[in-house]
Design goal:
The chain is mostly beta strands. 3% of the residues lie in helices and 28% in strands. The strands form three sheets. Strands 1, 2, 3, 4, 5, 6, 7, 8 and 9 form a nine-stranded antiparallel sheet that branches. The longest helix is centred in the N-terminal third of the chain and has 12 residues. Bound molecules: zinc ion. Zinc ion (ZN) binds next to loops.
Length: 384
């Protein structure tokens, strides 16, 4: 098979100092907006940003109440069309992170960190905190179907895993080849050599300034497939990265933070938060602090309703990756009270928690699935 090992074309990654910008991917997709609106219209009256009406009391031994003297942090408001974002709970941008675990990486049989990161480790290569999967920062009814990685114009975009290029250039969203008004801009899609549970896996790389890979080409992990740009519906250069499972469609995305290997010694927090009607708490702020220092504070917003899919095992509505191993405090404001819980993050692993109205916080993992759940055609998952 042809191996892609192209030159840099004279473009080295540049300093990552440009101001934060907002991707407007999908804003210009009227039929999508309509679809999302219809989806939301049937259900937005239940568990919204503010949660259910305060009629119940949080029960359960695991829900820890606010210690005396604790000053609750004001809850943020979700502002639609926030083009220039403040950065509450922004990820700390340190200049160094450990190398990633080798892929595929999976300590548990239900994990699937199959992909390397599409931006090299000498750049910022983790998701922008304000633009995680499942957020609605473009417009109230439009859900983000991938993660955005802050990268300089011209930075190399790397194949996240081995596979065959099935789409390259303009027209990924619209389906019209060469459509230069496509919100994804110039994009590449790789269909990977492995799947998961007998279904294919795809990764999507959007907003390229230059496409290097060509349709039909077989690429290996780390091959350069394009350069970071600002084509399509975006106001600045960055990489929009998606993981699609089962089909190469807009509605088949999953949270890339559950599919890309964490840095060595670091772990991933996965949560499922529901209200008193067992409905998912959408657009719900969750604060995560390392103990004992409490800093840096990370703030995650749970998935909105719309074109997002939870992991088949975890059924989560929030993921926060890239947490150094250690003890963390999770805080949510529920029924007008701050409710806290402490969890351990383990190297290279998922720490899973639930929050329910009746039980409060729990760290019981989801029930073990039946045998038919286990990965089918996936590449070999390392034994623990
Ligand atoms: Zn994006």
């Amino acid at each position: 098979m042809m191996n892609l090992s192209l030159s840099l074309r004279g473009q080295q990654p540049k300093a990552i100092s440009h101001p934060r910008r907002s991707s407007l991917l999908h804003r210009f997709a009227p039929h999508l907006i309509l679809t999302m609106g219809l989806l939301l219209a049937s259900s937005c009256s239940s568990a919204g940003e503010t949660g259910p009406t305060p009629t119940a009391v949080i029960a359960g031994e695991t829900a820890t109440q606010v210690p005396a003297g604790f000053e609750p942090t004001p809850r943020p408001t979700i502002e639609p069309f926030r083009f220039v974002l403040p950065t509450p709970g922004a990820e700390p941008v340190s200049g160094w992170r450990p190398p990633l675990y080798p892929v595929p990486w999976a300590v548990s049989a239900y994990d699937h960190f199959y992909f390397a990161r599409p931006i090299a480790a000498d750049n910022v290569n983790w998701p922008l905190a304000e633009y995680r999967y499942g957020g609605t920062f473009f417009a109230p009814n439009i859900v983000h179907t991938g993660v955005d990685i802050d990268a300089a114009e011209g930075a190399q975009i790397l194949a996240a895993g081995p596979g065959t290029v099935v789409s390259a250039g303009w027209g990924l969203y619209s389906g019209a080849e060469g459509n230069t008004s496509d919100p994804y801009g110039q994009a590449v899609v790789i269909k990977h050599d492995f799947g998961y549970k007998d279904k294919p896996l795809y990764t999507i790389y959007a907003h390229m300034s230059e496409v290097i890979a060509v349709i039909g080409q077989h690429v290996q992990t780390g091959d350069v497939i394009g350069l970071v740009g600002a084509t399509g519906a975006t106001t600045g250069p960055h990489l929009h990265f998606e993981v699609r499972w089962g089909a190469n469609t807009f509605y088949s995305t999953y949270n890339p933070e559950l599919w890309t290997a964490p840095p060595q010694g670091w772990g991933v927090l996965v949560g499922r938060l529901t209200d008193d009607e067992n409905k998912l708490l959408n657009n719900y702020p969750v604060e995560v602090r390392p103990m004992p220092s409490g800093v840096p504070l990370r703030r995650v917003i749970t998935y909105a309703q719309g074109a997002v899919n939870p992991d088949p095992y975890y059924q989560e509505n929030m993921v926060l990756s890239d947490l150094p191993a250690g003890l963390y405090k999770i805080t949510i404001n529920y029924m007008e009270k701050d409710v806290q819980y402490w969890v351990d993050i383990y190297p290279g692993q998922v720490t899973y928690f639930t929050f329910t109205d009746k039980e409060g916080f729990q760290v019981t993992p989801p029930p073990v699935p039946t045998l038919d759940f286990l990965p089918g055609t996936a590449t070999a998952v390392p034994t623990p």
